[in-house]
């Protein structure tokens, strides 16, 4: 079985297992999703979703964030970790979007990665979830599962992204990444994967 065939099988298996491929971060608009994704670095999505309601309630517009006191934001997001840097990035993102992108969150990886604190993982998420473009969000779950399936042989996020873009149907790539996160949490655990109930056991390199 070729890598392409394994990828297609994985797409179908996860689609059947997790028909609702949604991002677990809760946000009301593109900039809020950008903030939530930035906060999720070294932090669980569940924790981010506990913190963001107060932040989104206090700051409503890009202008609000651009003019905000980073220390005030840091106090609100404190429990997300690395709060000082994250708060500075949030203010900086808002300022740059207003000054360089006419107040609109960019729709491409090149522009998105010029924003403070935004790497390719975050940029891909925005491109896929907000703008409906083919995207590969190379988070830890996707990297682990892709290696176990034999689709990639690297833990480098950028290399995983590039390899999967070659293997996954473009229209399926974004949803596949969301489903991989759900599967990584539910079944394909880093330490104790539940291979006996995994729908991909038959073609997973870890089990063959």
Descriptors for this entry?
2 domains, Endonuclease III, domain 1, 11 helices, 208 residues
Helix and strand topology:
Layout: H1 3-17, H2 30-39, H3 45-58, H4 62-66, H5 70-76, H6 83-100, H7 109-112, H8 120-129, H9 140-149, H10 157-167, H11 170-186
In short:
By secondary structure, the chain is an all-alpha fold.
How do the helices and strands follow one another from N- to C-terminus?
Answer: HHHHHHHHHHH
List how many beta strands DSSP finds.
Answer: 0
How many separate helices?
Answer: 11
Identify low-pLDDT runs.
none
Q: Number of domains in the coordinates? A: 2
**Proportion of strand residues:** under 5%
- Secondary-structure content class: mainly alpha
CATH architecture of the largest domain: Orthogonal Bundle
- So what's the overall shape? elongated
What would the average pLDDT be, to the nearest integer? 96
Calculate Rg over CA atoms.
Answer: 18 Å
Percentage of residues assigned to helices: 55-70%
Q: Summarize the biggest pleated sheet.
A: none
**CATH fold field value of the largest domain:** Endonuclease III, domain 1
| Level-1 CATH class name of the largest domain | Mainly Alpha
User: How would you name the CATH homologous superfamily of the largest domain?
Assistant: Hypothetical protein, domain 2
> What is the straight-line distance between the termini?
12 Å
